[in-house]
Amino acid sequence: MAIIEQPRTNVALPAGTGAPALVTPKEAKGMFARPVEPKGWRDWVFTVDHKKIGIMYGVVAFVFFIVGGLEAMLIRLQLAAPNGKVLSAEQYNQMFTMHATTMVFLFVMPMASAFANYFVPLQIGARDVAFPRINAFGLWTFVAGAIFVNLSWFLGGGADGGWFMYAPNSTKMFSPGHGVDFWAFGLQITGIASLTGAINLIVTCINMRAPGMSLFKMPIFTWMIMVVQFLLVFAMPVITVALFLLSFSRGFGGAFFDVKQGADPLLWQHLFWIFGHPEVYILVLPSFGIVSEVLPVFSRKPLFGYKFVAISGAAIGFVGWGVWAHHMFASGLGPISVLVFSMATMMIAVPTGVKIINWTLTMWGGKLRFTTAMLFAIGLIVEFTIGGLSGVTHAVAPSDTQQTDTYYIVAHFHYVLFGGAIFGLFSGFYYWWPKVFGRLLNERWGKANFWLMVIGMNLTFGPMHIVGLQGQPRRMYRYDESNVHARFWNAISTVGAFVLALGILCFIVNVVITHRSKNPAVKAPLDPWDARSLEWMTSNPPPAHNFDAIPTVHELDEFFHRKYAVDHETDEIKQIATAEQIMAEQMAHAEKDIHLPSPSYWPLVVSLSLPIIGFGVIYSHILIAVGALVTILGLFGWSMEPSVATKDDYEPPAPTDDAIKELTA
Question: Which residues cross the membrane (predicted)?
Fold first, then answer.
């Protein structure tokens, strides 16, 4: 797409801002001419705009959040009372397997990608990601893989070996249906999406930062996303190898985990957990980044110890590679291995604790505003700390051996991922919603959303610590009436799950009410939170090209420093410009003839070829050749299309009177 060159004029600014004189509304119309993509479904399906791709990642991920939540509710209903009859043993195995798979791979990871795709280019002052068409390919590949995994429900039943899919339980002998096949190949497809997205965002962060933005002037959210992308680059090949071996064993008679032929089933556990523990930080670090953006804004203070927070994120990513075997203490690794991984598990608590301390000191002495975004950020600190403390007990090998395969592990895992990752994502929803959609979510509904989720989460997962320490195993689909403690605490957990679901429903209602409302109060101003970073230095929502002029960065929290300065006589911080004035100055110095990539349908074609290959692996090898042919043709078409659109591709839209009045008032 091309930004069509328009005559640029200047708007009225206060003295000292560096921009010339006033323009009339008629003259200002030229500033608002923007090219548009084709309307209708093609506008979204063929787009390569990182913002639309981010929105679509978010929508698809949230749909799977609902799917995973419904699966969880069926699990809780089955365990609500002794001798539950909601699910059979086979259905229960499928349900908890698909619930965990959905939440980890199809909700938290892609939702983090939604935030990363939308905000990383904005936070570093870039027009788009480094490889926009590869970005679109990543989106559609994730969608294809997610649908492929869930097709198993309709083609014989879901995967039933647990989200960890330990061998030999995942072999044909113990799981003869095709659920595991769909699971294994579907996750390989989503892994391709994660890997291409990771390379794209790494190049974007390194090569496309605005002039003057060094690594230690990047916002913490972008820092955490960059660390996560490096984790993905090294972790995804490991799980891809494991999934390939599993698929080859099931589909082509391989013996990679067959003890009779000299293989070792522990090979799968090592491969899975070498990926699986860095995966925990792949899930939570984006939320750590979100909280690190939200807390300073609503504390009216800069982030305490910015460099420590950034470096501790990188340290978590590094040390996270050395703790995987604490998932395997019960497998007979031997005392030396257990000792080493116990020490590493204790060590990783240090950089995590650094973040907790820095977040707390950021709030200390600040002028706190308890918006919904702030409440979810504080909720993450509290709930993740509880999960972290229970996690440290896994470093004590004798204790961990007793806790392994009990509900204590389930409780710990959910405090880390739900209390950590998902609370952080909801904080990001409320903080950045006005930036993405130009509307403010309702705070009353938001606080109801928060409190119901906090109460529901602790009611659901808190009791699991108790029943786990009392010996209730994981993956047990029934328990006897004589187990009084299990009866009581499982009933409490089920009530908590419904409270939690009600909290999620409040969020959905909030979104619907906000976007149907005709009340002008829901329209977001340019800078609704008095924010600090560059993404707020453009309109809500941003234009296709993000910035009229690429900003030059002089300070960490550049946007804040353009609004405020220290009065050297009184040492007080005084406002020197508003967001509207800064935006107007950007438009007054707008760049001309900005070129952006044109829409393309070839990434979608290549993505759709991958499930065809998957069906070939499972059902008919002829389909493998068909899928490979579609892949080759798609890549050929992709390589032959022009890199950018011409000026004649799109007509500029009509300017809005409201926007003109806003800048010429």
Answer: 55-75, 95-116, 137-156, 182-208, 220-246, 266-291, 303-324, 336-358, 370-392, 412-433, 445-468, 488-513, 612-638
Q: Which of the residue ranges 315-329, 451-465, 481-495, 574-588 has the most confident prediction, judged by mean pLDDT?
A: 451-465
Burial letters 525-536, b for 16+ CB under 10 A, else e:
ebbbbbbbbbbb
Nearest to 425 by CA among 386, 385, 384: 384
Q: How far is 323 from 415, CA to CA, in rounded Å?
A: 19
Q: Report the candidate in 129, 56, 37, 2 with the shortest Cα–Cα distance to residue 653.
A: 37
The pair of three-digit structure tokens given for residue 478, joined into one six-digit string: 């029934």
- How far is 487 from 493, CA to CA, in rounded Å? 10
Mean pLDDT of the chain: 89
Cβ neighbours of 255 (radius 10 Å): 13
Closest CA to 100 of 187, 176, 178, 188: 187
Contact between residue 113 and residue 57 where contact means Cβ atoms under 8 Å apart? yes
Q: At what angle do helices 372-392 and 266-299 cross, to 10 degrees?
A: 140
**What is the Cα–Cα distance from 445 to 211, expressed in whole angstroms?**
41
What tokens were used for 159?
Answer: 């995967």
422: exposed, middle or buried (C-beta count within 10 Å: 0-12, 13-18, 19+)?
buried
pLDDT higher than 60, residue 664? no
Residue 375 structure tokens? 């409440």
Give the Cα separation of 220 and 533 in Å (integer).
Answer: 10
3 state DSSP class of 644: strand
Contact predicate 317/278, CB 8 Å = yes
Percentage of the residues of the chain whose pLDDT score is greater than 70: 91
Position 539, amino acid: S
Tokens encoding 495: 């009530």
Domain 37-576 CATH class label: mainly alpha
For residues 213 and 287, what is the distance between their CA atoms, to the nearest angstrom?
A: 23
**Domain residue ranges of the chain, discontinuous segments joined by +:** 37-576
Q: How confident is the model at residue 20 (pLDDT cuts 50, 70, 90)?
A: very low
CA distances from 658 to 6, 29, 39, 191, 596 (A): 20, 11, 22, 44, 26
DSSP string for residues in 464-484: HHHHHHTTPBTT-----TT-H
Relative orientation angle of helices 484-516 and 50-79, to the nearest 10 degrees: 150
Predicted pLDDT at 644: 59
| DSSP tag of 393 | G
